[in-house]
Write a structure and sequence with these properties.
Elements: H1 2-10, E1 12-15, H2 23-32, H3 36-52, H4 58-70, H5 74-87, H6 93-105, H7 112-122, H8 127-136, H9 139-143, E2 149-153, E3 162-168, E4 171-176, E5 187-188, E6 193-194, E7 197-204, E8 207-213, E9 224-229, E10 235-241, E11 246-248, E12 251-254, E13 256-264, E14 267-271, E15 283-288, E16 294-298, E17 308-312, E18 323-324, E19 335-340, E20 346-350, E21 360-364, E22 372-373, E23 384-390, E24 395-403, E25 406-414, E26 418-427, E27 437-441, E28 447-452, E29 458-464, E30 468-475, E31 480-487, E32 495-502, E33 506-512, E34 523-528, E35 531-537, E36 543-547, E37 553-557, E38 564-567, E39 577-583, H10 609-624, E40 628-634, H11 641-661, E41 669-673, H12 691-697, E42 699-705
Parallel strand pairs: 26-32, 33-39, 40-41
Antiparallel strand pairs: 1-12, 2-25, 3-4, 4-7, 5-6, 7-8, 9-10, 10-13, 11-12, 13-14, 15-16, 16-17, 17-18, 19-20, 20-21, 21-22, 23-24, 24-25, 26-29, 27-28, 27-30, 30-31, 31-32, 33-36, 34-35, 34-37, 37-38, 40-42
């Protein structure tokens, strides 16, 4: 795979000089031509000769490692890398970075950490080694990662290699070296295979039905591919060779360029949307997202090493200047073959981030501190690259040389069904909250990805149907936050709403009656996003306080008062202290429960006719309101205290038993007899009072209880 990938980055070469008489010049010439297969034995011979002469040529050792690595002879490359690091103190960071990759390619995972520690001790300020140091401790965790995709071979080919399959119409377009279309000099000297061509493979039911050379866009010489398309197949993005030659180390290069075509009346017409090709460097592997923003790989100056990933924003008429995606995704190695999915996730191949070995497939959400390795079986110790997937169908393609270092196309299939999840983020005044990060976690609490709200406060991602997710918004600068846990339902209309509100908000409510006096015994319920988060009962001062949740509404229920409900005003939802006065209106209709009419004869607890009328009103009220009440009875002061307490309990129970007989659950009402302990006037023991005054104390009271 190394030959193929760097063919696509550095393109084809043509020698400008004849073979030199000296072996070293000849070996260097072969390396300059990237002909590592022939260069390696010459370099190795030079190394052995210098060792025998007891004057080791470490430059030749490094060239031998480079040639063995470039020709995919990883075992012998690691042997010479071990020799280099053991025999000389004049090592460089590049020597160690090369060995890190060779250890992974040879599955020598146990030896990586010790070598990284040695490199860190020798080069404590080197940024790339620092990155490996921070990641090497997580290597075991990386190697244990399992992808949500199964991987199977797409097809077996006898001649040449193929890679970079991209969905198109009823099949796929892929790059192959197995075709000979009759052009002069069709064999590429570096690989010994034919130059790359595009082949269209028609599929039916996942099986191949037809294969043809794809020439809808006129092919070039020597290399064509890879190619990608916009989501509606209107635009095509082709990687091919530049016409202008560049020269380096006496070798002429046809570097890569990116061409864009638009389909007009069944013909592909070349467009000048992209004006950033340059003969001094390569540009290729172009793909677009659903907004036509362009992503590509390039070794242009100013990058982080090797080839980096860049983005060009679509402005409606063409592409703005390239912007490097930065160190969160680019490394000192090579980042190649980007792909942006429907979910807005970028997939790419890299050998600069620690992984299984060679090129691995990584994902990045455009905001996280670093990319995530996709795990096995998508990744292996070989080169894994050119990954694409439709995250809704769960189907896609992968290229890899995991079998005998031969590039092949593999099919990937997700193990679960997915769908779009739509999210709306609003500020505490119920306005769309734009350009804000929301972090998404899986059901087990592990990090999944970070989302960014658009100009309308909208976010979306593609999640597994039936899985539970947790969304968190938190801004430490202004103290606003919100979180929500939900299950991704199959219902496409499901929209998750979030509100950025103060972390802590204290709600103070003063409940007043129609005479503007504090109302005792009112039930106050606080809600957040339609869910009850607290309920409490007002005391004699009519005051309730709630601290902790940011509430968006509340309701107040009081006996013989109209139900009170209120949405917290939008202009108050950002307040850290919310103080509101609530005036309850007295119910003056026929449903008013006149508790004064629940009366008893002296020394009796039998219900009188007028009492039953009022109790029937209470039954109706309780059936329409989900609440629990205490019904209490009281006596006057005449008679023995203990007798009065027993009498009042009997009176209370007579009312409760009647209410239960009318269909109210016994769990919703309790009877309490207070005897003469709660007189409403002066008529205590041995106090002369009229019958009317004593009757005032023989009463029934009703209050809501908070249980």
């Amino acid at each position: 795979m190394k030959q193929t990938i760097y063919t696509l980055i550095f393109a084809c070469s043509m020698s400008l000089s004849y073979a030199q008489s000296f072996k070293k010049e000849y070996a260097q010439k072969l390396s300059n031509q990237f002909n590592y297969v022939e260069a390696f034995p010459v370099w190795e011979e030079l190394v052995n000769e210098s060792i025998e002469a007891k004057n080791t040529d470490f430059t030749s050792v490094r060239k031998a490692i480079e040639a063995a690595y470039g020709s995919e002879q990883y075992v012998v490359a690691l042997k010479w890398s071990d020799y280099l690091l053991a025999q000389t103190k004049e090592t460089t960071p590049a020597d160690y970075l090369s060995q890190f990759q060779l250890l992974l390619l040879n599955k020598k995972y146990d030896g990586l950490k010790s070598q990284v520690d040695k490199a860190q001790a020798l080069f404590p300020t080197n940024v790339d080694i620092q990155r490996w140091k921070s990641e090497a401790s997580n290597l075991t965790e990386i190697l244990d990662q399992k992808s949500v995709y199964d991987v199977t071979l797409f097809r077996s080919v006898e001649v040449g290699e193929e890679f970079s399959a991209f969905p198109f119409e009823e099949g796929v377009l892929l790059v192959t070296t197995g075709q000979n279309t009759g052009f002069v000099n069709r064999v590429y000297g570096k690989t010994g295979q034919f130059f790359t061509d595009l082949v269209y493979v028609k599929l039916k039911g996942g099986k191949q039905t037809k294969e043809v050379i794809w020439n809808d866009i006129k092919r070039t010489n020597p290399h064509d591919g890879p190619i990608s398309f916009s989501f509606n197949n209107r635009y095509a993005y082709l990687t091919t060779n530049q016409d202008v030659l560049d020269e380096k180390n006496r070798i002429k290069y046809n570097r890569l360029k990116l061409e864009i075509y638009e389909k007009e009346q069944e013909l592909w017409v070349k467009k000048d949307f992209f004006n950033y090709n340059n003969s001094a460097y390569s540009v290729g592997h172009g793909v677009v997202d659903d907004s036509l923003n362009l992503y590509f790989a390039s070794d242009m100056p100013g990058g982080f090493g090797g080839s980096d990933l860049y983005k060009c924003k679509w402005n409606g008429n063409g592409y703005d200047a390239p912007v490097n995606l930065g160190p969160k995704v680019n490394s000192a190695g090579n980042e190649l073959f980007p792909y942006v999915s429907l979910d807005g996730t970028i997939y790419f191949a890299s050998n600069g981030w620690p992984g299984f070995g060679g090129l691995d497939i990584f994902t990045w959400d455009f905001v996280s501190a670093k990319p995530s390795n996709m795990g096995a079986p998508v990744n292996s110790n070989a080169d894994d690259f050119s990954f694409n997937v439709n995250e809704i169908s769960g189907k896609g393609f992968l290229s890899s040389n995991r079998a005998n270092w031969k590039d092949e196309v593999f099919v990937v299939n997700a193990k679960m069904q997915k769908r779009y999840v739509d999210i709306e983020l609003k500020d505490c005044r119920n306005k769309p909250y734009a350009q804000q990060k929301v972090t998404l976690y899986r059901n087990d609490g592990s990090y999944y990805k970070t989302l960014m709200s658009d100009d309308f406060g909208r976010l979306s991602y593609i999640g597994v149907i039936g899985e539970q997710y947790h969304l968190v918004y938190k801004d430490p600068t202004n103290g606003l936050m919100d979180s929500v846990t939900f299950i991704n339902q199959i219902d496409a209309s499901q929209t998750i709403q979030m509100f950025a509100r103060p972390k802590n908000q204290k709600s103070n409510l003063l409940v007043l009656n129609n005479s503007n006096l504090p109302l005792d015994g009112a039930l106050v319920r606080f809600y957040q996003k339609g869910r009850e988060v607290q309920k409490t009962i007002t005391k004699k001062d009519g005051f309730v306080s709630f601290d902790g949740y940011v509430v968006d509404s509340f309701t107040i229920t009081a006996i013989n008062h109209n139900e009170f409900s209120m949405l917290v005003p939008e202009n108050r939802r950002c307040d850290t202290l919310l103080s509101i006065n609530c005036n309850m209106k007295l119910n003056t209709g026929n449903s008013f429960i006149n508790l004064d009419m629940i009366l008893y004869d002296y020394d009796k607890w039998n219900l009188r006719a007028e009492s039953i009328v009022e109790l029937d009103k209470l039954v109706k009220y309780m059936k329409s309101n989900n609440l629990k009440v205490e019904l209490s009875s009281h006596t006057d002061s005449r008679g023995n205290d203990e007798y009065n307490e027993r009498l009042s309990q009997n009176r209370s129970e007579s009312c409760v038993n009647y209410i239960i007989s009318k269909g109210i659950s016994s769990s919703r009402i309790i009877a309490k007899g207070y005897g003469e302990y709660r007189l409403k006037n002066k008529c205590g023991n041995d106090v002369e009072c009229t019958e009317e005054e004593h009757q005032l104390n023989r009463r029934t009271e009703l209050r809501i209880i908070n249980e």
